[in-house]
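Why do we care about 3D structure at all? Because function follows from shape, and shape follows, mostly, from sequence. That is the central idea of this module. The next example makes it concrete: a single protein chain, its amino acid sequence, and then its structure expressed as tokens.
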Amino acid sequence: MQHDQFDVTLEDSDLLGEVELTTNLIIAASESEEHLSVDEIDEILGVVPSPRQGS
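And the structure:
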């Protein structure tokens, strides 16, 4: 059996992660009656707030 050089699987894990995050935002926005707050968006995206620096 000869290998087909054009039969390749392309997978970009970073792109797949971004698509998943975007999909989660779209779903959350479509289920919400109001605009999503910044805090809600951060939670959906898994953003962890950085600790505040003392002045």
